[in-house]
Amino acid sequence: MKSPRAILRTLVGLAIIVVSLNLAYGWLEDSSLETTAESVREIALEVAAREQPEKTQKNAILALRQEFGNDDIMGHLVVDGTGIDYIVTQAEDNSFYLTHDIWKNDSVAGWVFVDAYSSLDPPSKNIVVYGHNMRNPIMFHELREFKKSGFFFDHREVTFDTLYESGKYKIFAFYETTVDFPFNTSSFSSGEDFLSLI
Q1: Whole-angstrom Cα distance, residue 170 to residue 164?
Q2: Which residues neighbour 37 within 8 Å (Cβ) at sequence distance 6 or greater?
Q3: Which of 35, 37, 119, 167 could pair with 160 as two cysteines, CB 3.0-4.6 Å apart?
Q4: Is the distance from CB of 117 to CB of 184 less than 8 angstroms?
Q5: Ramachandran region of residue 33, left (φ > 0), alpha (ψ -120 to 50) or beta?
């Protein structure tokens, strides 16, 4: 029978191996997502550079749908001066793109998507867009920088072109909240009801 000290050394060694594998897996997944995000940006730029009979945001989104083979693609979101520059999807539920990429392949990092209950045509007063806060500066990691007033005032312009319209927005506030706050409310009975949310 092994001594308690030998058993303890074995358990500590196993714990170190498990933690190391977990860290390596996380790093590989993050670098895989970074590669995916870069590939998507490159493809989107190639699609945008192609000649189209009429350059409209609708034709641009339709061309992206065709290129990626994904009819869930609904728009393109860019936050000025940041790495937030993503093709945005929308599914029938809010769980699919938590675990799937833009090609609908399994991915623990998921993809950027509009809340299933947010309407893009006509646009809801509150359009909720989800994306993971990754360890490296991809997806929505940079949103935390908006806590800094200098960053906030230098990066307030947002472009969200959808299949239905081209949108320019200005960020007027930043706050962190918990899941019990109704941040994903998309329809309101009155203007006062909407203002009470924001």
Answers
A1: 19
A2: 86, 138, 139
A3: 167
A4: yes
A5: alpha
